[in-house]
Design brief:
Blueprint: H1 3-27, H2 31-60, E1 80-90, E2 97-108, H3 120-136, H4 144-155, E3 159-160, E4 166-176, H5 179-216, H6 220-230, H7 235-240, H8 242-252, H9 266-278, H10 285-301, H11 305-315
Antiparallel strand pairs: 1-2, 2-4, 3-4
Helix pairs in contact: 1-2, 3-4, 6-8, 6-10, 10-11
Length: 335
C-alpha cells in the first residue's frame, strides 16, 4: 500500500470514529459503548495496513517460471575410413580406362532409420564408386586432369546413401591414365596433326592443278597470256616459247601435239603468233583483245611496227572492244 493510500485510510478511520461518538451522544448510548467503537474504528486500519499491504504485494508478484535445463549439443560420432586403390573406371572412350584411388570417409546417421548395414564401409565405398562412374564415364581420357579436379570437388560433399544409414564423402582423390594409354593417345594426336597438314597440302595441290589445267593451260593462247601477265617486258621471250606452250597445253589435255604449219624463222614465228591469238575460243574474247593489244604495244616499243600493225589489222575490229583499263593500258584503235 502506498503512502497516499495509508493516509486516506487513516482519515477515513478518524471520520468513522467521530461518527460513532456523534451517534452515541445523540442516541444516548452508554459512554463505554461508543468510546470502544470509536477507538476500534480509529486503531483498526493502522493494525490491518501491514497485512493488507503484504497480501496485495503477494498478489502482484509474478508466477515463478519453470527452469529449463540447457541441452548440450550432441557431437556426431567420429568418421571411419575406407581406402580405394587403383580401381579402373571406363571413360568416354570405351577402350581407355582411368584408374581411381581415394580415401572414403563415412559415419552412421543418428537416429539411424531402418536396419543397420552389416558392412557400412563397403556401402560407403559403393556410394563413392557409383558417383565416380557417372562422372568419369563422361570424361575424355585426354583431359584426365580436368576430370580429377571435378571428381575431387564432387566427392568432397557430404551426402547420405540411398538407405539413409550413413553419410559419405571422399578425400585424397587421384585419377590417372595408364602410361601405355597416354603414350598411345600422344601418338594418335601426332598422326591426326600430320593428316591435317597432309590434307591441306593435298587441297592446295589440287587447286593448283585445277588452276593450271583449267585456266592457264586451257589453250596455248591462255598460256601465253599467263606468261605475259607475269612480265610484259619479255614479249620476245614469250614469242619464242610459243611452240613449247602449244606442246605443254596439248600434253595437259592429253591431246596430240599440233604440228607447226609455218616455216621456221622470223616470218614463221610471226604467223605462228597470229594463229595462236586467233585460236582462242570465242568465249575468250577479252583475253584475245588483251593479248593482241599487249603484244602489239610491246612490238611497237621494240620497233616491230610492221608486225604490230598486222596484229592490229587482224584483231582490232569494232566487235572486239577490250577493257580500256586492262594491264594499265588505254588502247588506241587504228583508223
Amino acid at each position: 500500500m502506498t503512502r497516499e493510500q495509508r493516509s486516506a485510510v487513516r482519515i477515513a478511520s478518524l471520520l468513522a470514529a467521530i461518527l460513532w461518538v456523534v451517534l452515541g451522544l445523540m442516541r444516548g448510548w452508554a459512554p463505554g459503548v461508543w468510546v470502544v467503537l470509536a477507538a476500534v474504528t480509529a486503531i483498526a486500519p493502522s493494525l490491518l495496513a501491514g497485512p493488507v499491504s503484504q497480501w496485495l504485494h503477494e498478489r502482484r508478484r509474478p508466477e515463478p517460471q519453470p527452469v529449463i535445463a540447457a541441452v548440450a549439443p550432441v557431437e556426431p560420432p567420429p568418421p571411419s575410413r575406407y581406402e580405394l586403390s587403383y580401381v579402373p573406371l571406363s571413360s568416354a572412350r570405351a577402350d581407355y580406362r582411368l584408374v581411381l584411388s581415394c580415401v572414403v570417409w563415412w559415419r552412421r546417421k543418428s537416429p539411424e532409420p531402418g536396419i543397420p548395414h552389416a558392412d557400412p564401409g563397403s556401402l560407403a565405398a559403393e556410394v563413392v564408386l557409383e558417383q565416380s562412374r557417372q562422372l568419369v564415364g563422361a570424361a575424355s581420357p585426354e583431359e584426365v586432369e580436368i576430370a580429377q579436379a571435378k571428381l575431387t570437388s564432387y566427392l568432397g560433399v557430404v551426402r547420405a546413401d540411398a538407405t539413409g544409414h550413413i553419410e559419405v564423402w571422399a578425400t585424397d582423390v587421384a585419377l590417372r591414365l595408364p602410361e601405355s594409354d597416354a603414350d598411345r593417345l600422344r601418338r594418335l594426336a601426332d598422326v591426326r596433326k600430320e593428316e591435317e597438314v597432309w590434307e591441306h597440302e593435298r587441297n592446295h595441290e589440287r587447286k593448283k592443278r585445277e588452276y593450271l589445267g583449267g585456266d592457264v593451260l586451257k589453250s596455248a593462247g591462255s598460256a601465253l597470256v599467263w606468261w605475259l601477265a607475269r612480265d610484259e617486258s619479255q614479249i620476245d621471250d614469250a614469242v619464242g616459247k610459243i611452240p613449247n606452250l602449244r606442246k605443254l597445253t596439248a600434253a595437259a589435255h592429253d591431246e596430240r601435239v599440233p604440228e607447226l604449219d609455218v616455216e621456221r624463222g622470223e616470218l614463221g614465228a610471226q604467223d605462228h603468233l597470229v594463229e595462236l591469238i586467233r585460236g582462242l575460243q570465242p568465249e575468250d574474247e577479252d583475253e584475245r583483245a588483251l593479248l593482241s593489244d599487249s603484244i602489239a604495244s610491246a612490238l611497237e616499243r621494240r620497233g616491230q611496227s610492221e608486225l604490230a600493225a598486222k596484229i592490229r589489222a587482224e584483231f582490232d575490229s569494232p566487235d572486239a572492244a577490250p577493257n580500256p583499263e586492262a594491264n594499265g593500258h588505254v588502247r588506241a584503235r587504228s583508223t
